[in-house]
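$ run holo --ligand "heme C" --emit tokens
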Amino acid sequence: MTAPDHRLSGLRARFAAAGLIVLASLSTPQSTQAAQAAQGTPDGMALYEAGCASCHGSDGQGAPPERIAFDDPLPDLTDCSFASREPDADWIIVSKAGGPVRGFSDVMPAFAEAFDDEQLQAVMDHIRSFCTDRAWPRGELNLPRPLFTEKAYPEDEWVWTSGVNAEGPGAVINELLYEKRFGSRNQVEIALPFGFAETVSAPAGRDEGPTEGLASDWGVGLGDIEIGYKRALLHDLRTIFSFGTEFKLPTGDEERGLGSAEFQIEPFLALGQILPGDAFLHLQTGAGLLARGHREVVGGAEGGEAVREAFLHAAVGRTFTSGEFGRSWSPMIEVLGSTHLAEGSRPQWDLVPQMQVTLNTRQHVMLNVGVRLPLTDADVRSTQLLVYFLWDWFDGGLFDGW
Ligand code: HEC
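-- output --
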């Protein structure tokens, strides 16, 4: 473990420029290339020791403060809650291009010239060995979020969704959603829907005709507050399968069409699947149940909860990246199907083409814009324009990493 790898000498210069006193400890293992030549595959642990351990520590917890000459906090790579949620691809980008490529500190150097992709992958495989608890689903499964389909992956995020009807009287429906993970597989959420709706009052004696020029009144109202729980039941590197339940409280302003005045329970199953070529699929199916005391609404079924509605949501999409390290664009197409289980009612189908884009360098603030097109009863159901603004708050403050 003596002769420095010639490719690491460039790094040494960079470290020196950064005023690091870790140099002495960066005693490069005997040619890592020689080791590779012997084994045929890069030795991730040796490369990590050579390039990363001086700052990140051999155990991944970060070198002791007296060994490093910077104040920027180092991540704890053994902390599963932090490490499991970052996909390899994101960490490889940071390791290749340096911290600033994702809005992190420039103390985190760029290794593009020192290590090739295969070597960096071997380093990642070694870093992955620091978190030993496999109960944590990997960040690769955190697929782009569709406008309606609930993801199987547990999240820490805020999402503000707004929708406006393209036809008919004006109405803006909003939902502010907060999601919080706990433990390795669980998530709780609370959603606060609210809306602005226009009521057009026609002068006496005039019941129909164009609404332009008539007095209209915009009012704000609260919708049905929802509380939810979700748990990942199964996951591997490509698939995640979860169960969840949402409880809808009858807090809505019924007069403004913003609530149902019923207590509802909505159990569901959700699947996230990584497909070849950066494509992905989300599936969610569930039922809307009315709680006790509201049985009459579904025709007097006796006892327990009554199933009122069943639904199926599906979304497929693909992620494209601008340049090697840039913004992610994820076009998706979503299909929403629902049916009331009362006799004589027909299923309703909607199609929702949409595009999600990451807004900042850190890529933890995103926007999704889509159109909900009714495929059934299109004469009575309005086309809706939708947009959400998403902040993955675990990855940093709203104003960090731009
Ligand atoms: C000169 C010290 C130094 C060296 C050497 C170094 N890092 Fe870092 N690294 C940092 C610092 C500091 C941060 C924290 C940056 C921040 O949070 O702003 C960091 C952060 C990271 C992150 C976390 C990014 C995230 O999502 O939060 C990864 C992954 C990483 N380094 C990988 C590596 C790998 C792999 C190597 C070796 C090939 C390496 N680092 C070498 C200083 C270093």
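-- notes --
The chain has two domains: 6-128, 139-395.
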